[in-house]
Amino acid sequence: MPKAPDPITRDLWHVVAATNELPIGQIETTLLLDRRIALTRGIDGEPVAWLATGEENGDEIDSETVLDRLPVRTAYGYTWTCLGTPSAELFPIPEFAEPDRVNMSCGSIGIHVSAPRAVENFLDMGHFPYVHTDILGSEPHTEVKEYDVEVSEERDEVLATKCKFMQPRAAKSATTAMEVEYVYRVPHPFCSVLYKSCPEDESRRDVIGIFLQPMTEETCRAHLLQSMIDSTSTITDLRRFQQTIFGQDKPILENQYPKKLPLDPRSETPIRADKSAIAYRRWLSQKGITYGVIPQAS
Amino acid sequence: MPLSLSDPTWYPIASSEDLPFRHVYQGQLLGRELAVWRADDGNVNVWENRCLHRGVRLSIGINEGQELKCQYHGWRYANQSAGCTYIPAHPADAPSRRIENRKYPVREAFGLIWSAANDDQPFAPFDGAQGEDWFPLRPMPVDAAPEDVVAGLARLAPDDQPADLLPGMAVRLGAAVFFVQPVDAGRAVIRGLLAGQPHDAMAALRHHNETLTKLRDRLERAAARKPAPEPLQPVFEKVSAELSTMPDIAVPRGNTITVVVKRKWKSAEGVIGFELADRDGRYLPTFQPGAHIDVHLPNGLVRQYSLTNGPGDLNSYVIGVKQESASKGGSKVLVETVREGDVLAISEPRNNFPLRRDATRTVLIAGGIGITPLLSMARFLDKSSLKYELHYFTRQSERLAFSSELDVLHGSIDRHVGLGREAITAKVAEVLGPYQFANHVYICGPGTMLEMVQQTASALGWPDEAIHFEYFQNDKVIDASSAFDVELARSAMTLHVPAGRTILETMREAGLTVPSSCEQGACGTCLTGVIEGEVDHQDVYLNKTEKASNTCIMTCVSRAKGPRLVLDI
């Protein structure tokens, strides 16, 4: 019997599906915080979610007949729901509303690891040359330079800035290695947003979001958002790129032990490059998150 | 009897043939996953299957021959000690903290690899093992409780010849001995040995494999009818408190190790090689390329010598000592009075000359005895298949040391013999060429050569951070004319340092025990943290950045710029 999620996790909005991939009039089921959830869309295109009671994937349904509904909202192309009392607004990504951006959901990938482990991997630059060889990094350029990390009290999020890394092909047009600059936000215990210098317009940044759906304490689904300034690549190209990256991360994450993120500082060995991960672990500890983590023994 | 996580029994965990070179095998014993790998020198390592950094399985890592490289962030761990030698995210730092993976005892015998959950019992071969030529059978994994597997094996015996149950979950059946490897509470592997080499090896393998397959099917059918036993729950040990934080500068330890001179030989004209090994044959502590040790000499002096060893080579340290006629009792004592079999005290290896492995081009320039740390660097680069050029300058060809060691390397090795000062400068300029991104040069040799290479490289546009060198001697004239006060924060004491006395001397006179070694600002032993006040650095140990940080001081030569200095001591 899985343990009940902590109240903070229970009251969060959680991503469950790419809205436009939910079938209209048909049921799709998934797991959220160890509970089976049923989803569908009405003919108005609006998502509907409820706690499943034996429904099967692909069953036909008229969403009007669903009475006992979970709260839902659509944001950044995804459907979000909550198993408790949703209090807070969902975190903002203002760039999403800019008219000239290509916003797209790039797929949902199941990973046999806790959601916080996947967030931490998203924040990590040191693995680029080893896991994303010749795409996001390549040997011998392995250095993670000093960067800044803060926990913004006002926005209640972890912010890592001035993150720089030498990338072999930061853009399709690049022929030599160049240094790219990243900004990472962790505005939600299971979501992170990355801002990356944009090859087409120096004054703006491409945005990549990763939203983790904690299915159980040790499994999650990664939902990807891209919000790009890119007038040349096709959506297929951009999706394929992100799916390649996550396809490379998946086997590494699934070989990580323990699968839950340990919050005791003495459980693993951090280095300076892990500053953002350390800040993230502390932030989770302070919030009182216990789902998908091994809390520090008090 | 239920399985125990602390069971000290030695069990076979793999066959020797599961461990070809450059492979990492994933094993399991008493619920614990193991990464098992054979180094190029033949040594077998059995480690906890988990990188200490982020918990990724080491069995998906890369066996580089003498080091294991984690897949996730490329951390390198040394053969034998499992000590971390390189962290690619911080290529310019020597990993100063002792990061060591959990490892288990190991023995290779009778075609099997043996290990135990702890070191509580020495390895002892099973009864009747000696004097027989054993033939290993194919292993048979069984999804059943290990004790049920032992019972099942015993039932294979004919009625008139009951099975002989040996200690440690082993069963003797006629000419064969079967060992049960307790993988977990509900899983086991049967590993058999046959006395004597069979005439038809294939037939023998096939015959036993068929018998064991039938046994496995019976055992698994029986196991399926019982409730599955609860898997063992091994815990991951916590890392030390020191490893859980990130110190800016690590204060080196003063530990010494006793070693025996295993071999002393003339490597070249004027160069004597010394091989130093642990007295009990254990491996020595992990080191990184460029590291040196302090050698405590019989006459009380302490001298620094670079290690020449390659990666994961911890059975002994090899140093080269220059035979100097003018030497005042340092190297001279080693060369003239220390003999094979003598015992010496040495420090743990320290590294003030770290090798970056993130260069697109690495140039190593050695002058005379300066070959020693560069030989170590070349050996590390060689094993990782990284490109490098080694230029070795000596006055005469008879003085070229470590020739056979250099001959087996695959990089570009150039020996330059008998060149005059100007010709050396011209050659160095030609070798270096204009600076390009991610190029690095490492120099070790006489002081005049270090300066010449630095100037030549600077003139060609090489930035300071691309020019690496190490001083073993402080040739600067120490200015001890200032007088000031030192406040010792932790000892709650204020001392006056007069002109002509060092901080170190003043502290010792006040009764404090302070470690020191070279006492000329070169070795780093007396490194002390600075809390307040500006330091007048006169050492050659700290690099420019460390000096500018004003956070540490070498108390044997450096002083205060102002009237007061607050030290963390």
Automatic annotation (TrEMBL), chain A:
The protein's matches in InterPro entries, at most eight in alphabetical order, are given as: Cholesterol_7-desaturase, Rieske_2Fe-2S_sf, VanA_C_cat
Q: Is Oxidoreductase there in the keyword field?
A: yes
Molecular-function GO terms, alphabetical: 2 iron, 2 sulfur cluster binding; dioxygenase activity
Statement: the UniProt record of this protein carries the keyword Signal = no
**Chain ranges of the Vanillate O-demethylase oxygenase-like C-terminal catalytic domain:** 113-286
Q: Which residues form a coiled coil?
A: none
The UniProt keyword set, sorted, is: Dioxygenase, Oxidoreductase
Q: What is this protein called?
A: Phenylpropionate dioxygenase, large terminal subunit
Gene source species: Devosia crocina
Lineage runs:
Bacteria, Pseudomonadati, Pseudomonadota, Alphaproteobacteria, Hyphomicrobiales
TrEMBL record, chain B:
Residue ranges of the Rieske domain? Answer: 10-115
Q: Does the keyword RNA-binding apply?
A: no
PROSITE patterns reported for this sequence: 2FE2S_FER_1, 2FE2S_FER_2, FAD_FR, RIESKE
SUPFAM superfamilies documented for this protein: 2Fe-2S ferredoxin-like, Ferredoxin reductase-like, C-terminal NADP-linked domain, ISP domain, Riboflavin synthase domain-like
Q: Where is the FAD-binding FR-type domain?
A: 252-356
Could you tell me the keywords of this UniProt record? 2Fe-2S, Iron, Iron-sulfur, Metal-binding
List the residue ranges forming a coiled coil, or say none.
Answer: none
Looking up InterPro entries in the UniProt record yields: 2Fe-2S_ferredoxin-like_sf (IPR036010), 2Fe-2S_ferredoxin-type (IPR001041), 2Fe2S_fd_BS (IPR006058), Benzoxazolinone_Detox_Enz (IPR052353), Beta-grasp_dom_sf (IPR012675), FAD-bd_FR_type (IPR017927), FNR_nucleotide-bd (IPR039261), Riboflavin_synthase-like_b-brl (IPR017938)
GO MF assignments: 2 iron, 2 sulfur cluster binding; metal ion binding; oxidoreductase activity
Pfam families per record: Fer2, Rieske
PANTHER family, alphabetized: PROTEIN YIIM (PTHR30212)
Could you identify this protein by its name? Ferredoxin-NADP reductase
Q: Which organism is it from?
A: Devosia crocina
